[in-house]
Every structure is written in C-alpha cells, then in structure tokens.
Amino acid sequence: MLGEQREGRGVTDETGPWLVVGLGNPGRGYAGNRHNVGFMVADLLAGRLGARFGRHKRAVAEVAEGRLGFGGPKLVLVKPLTYMNLSGGPVAGLAQFHKVPPGRVIAVHDELDIGYGQLRVKCGGGEGGHNGLRSMSKSLGTKEYVRVRFGIGRPPGRQDPADYVLSDFGAVERKELEFLVDRAADVVESVVTRGVEPTQNLYHGV
Fold first, then answer.
1. Which residues form the active site (predicted)?
2. Number of domains forming the structure of the chain
3. Boundaries of domain holding 49
4. Is 201 flagged in the annotation as binding?
5. Catalytic hit among 35, 56, 109, 130
6. Is 130 a residue of the active site?
C-alpha cells in the first residue's frame, strides 16, 4: 500500500487536502451493488488511514479524514448520503468547506464502458451517462476533476444497464472483488502521491 510505503519518509503536506469521493447509494439494500464500488473503495481507504466515517454536520454525507503516512497528504474521504443522482451537492459543499479545488477532487466510480476489474484514471471529460458524475460536474461547475474508473463491463444480453448497475456482483466476480477494490485504493493513493499521468503509466497496462 502506497500510504504504508511512504510512512516515515517525512512527506510534507504543501498544497492542502484531497477530497476523495466514493460514489454509491446509501442503505444496506445497495451495499453489494456494482454501482456502489466507490463506497467499497472509500471504506478500504478509511481502514488504511485508521479513520472512521461519521456523519458530517454541514453536508448530507459521511466523512473520514486522515493522512497518507507520517506527515503525508491529507485525505478527506466522502460517501454522499443522497442517492447517486444528487451526489454533487454534498461534494461541492465539502469542497468549499475544506477549500479543495476541483483538480484535487477524486471521484471513484463504476464504469460500464471498460471490462470488469480494469482500472482507468483520467481528469475531465464526459460523464458517460453516469448520474453521480453528472451531478458532480453540475454542482462543481466544472468537469475538470479526477476520476478513478472501476470497470464493471456491459450487462449480458438485453439486460437494462440501470438494472445491471443496481444488481450485486456475480459469484465469479466476487472471487476477485476484494483484490480489485484494494488495487483501486492503490490507484487513488498513487494519484495523490504521484499525479495522474504517472498513475496512468503505472496502472493502465495492468
């Protein structure tokens, strides 16, 4: 884990916190859905930081805060408690509260357009029909934030994509899910510590 590797190196926080947004829907009924993989990554990152999520007083979201390693960059981890299509409001409010510019906001989300388990990073661009990203872009007033895209692949046959993303990962997928969520957390840490382009070079060939 990158945070652990950097511990003890005396990394200083020179440019403020990062807002890492795990996109998903609140409630137990959605917990295992493909659409909630962003929540899964956020939960894992909180565990790495030794942080716990708690309800924020000024935003409809759960928030956990911590640093990557000793004196490293601060992460503000966010799980919006609105439904997916209203995620942008809490994100924009927290970005303003913590004075985080859009370029230091990372959205972790499911992605239909890449194969299961593939991870891709980009800054800006379209939302690909993802309601959470669409809401974030509208509320932030820009598309120029970082996306960590967790591939879930296209639905089989004629299944409606809306039904597919709101269904749980299949049995075969679940065998690899823990490993893939762990790798996605590594990608987030790499964006923070290395930058977008070096992270693309490191992970896009995997």
1. 35 (proton acceptor)
2. 1
3. 18-204
4. no
5. 35
6. no
